[in-house]
Design goal:
Number of helices: 2
Distance between the termini: 64 Å
CATH superfamily: Calycin beta-barrel core domain
Radius of gyration: 23 Å
Shape: elongated
CATH topology: Lipocalin
Number of strands: 10
Protein name: Lipocalin-like domain-containing protein
Number of domains: 1
Order of helices and strands: HHEEEEEEEEEE
Length: about 130
């Protein structure tokens, strides 16, 4: 009788441990947000500005598990402007609200459902860019 209980106990442990092996680890934050984003909306001081003749893209490249490098490309009336290096950005998981983006300790954006929001203050103006992942 003891042998039967021992076999049942060991088989339970064996199958219980095997289930954990089947679970996939969550992808790294940088892998989730890396890619090319096309800006679809530009707001300056809360006012929507038309993007007539302007094509803005933001490139996020994985640097490490929670860090990306960012670059902004701008075309005005089909003419490319020099790329703007945005430096390295830190990523933090914000749970159900997506992934927050920080430059140092200052929050400068977020990514949720393949939609990138970047907000900065430049020359006293609050600028927000909303972009979709391509």
């Amino acid at each position: 009788m003891k042998k039967i209980f021992l076999i049942l106990f060991l088989s339970t442990l064996f199958f219980a441990c095997e289930e954990d092996k089947a679970k996939d680890p969550a992808p790294e934050l940088a892998a989730q947000v890396a890619g090319t984003y096309k800006v679809t909306e530009l707001n300056v001081d809360g006012t929507n500005k038309p993007l007539n003749g302007a094509a803005i893209t933001v490139l996020l490249d994985k640097f490490s598990a929670e860090v990306v490098t960012a670059k902004m490309k701008l075309k005005l009336d089909g003419v490319s402007e020099p790329d703007e290096d945005l430096g390295t950005l830190n990523l933090k998981n914000a749970g159900s609200t997506g992934i927050d983006i920080y430059e140092g300790t200052e929050k400068v954006g977020s990514v949720r459902s393949n939609k990138l929001n970047i907000f900065v203050v430049f020359d006293g103006q609050e600028i927000e860019m909303i972009a979709d992942k391509q």
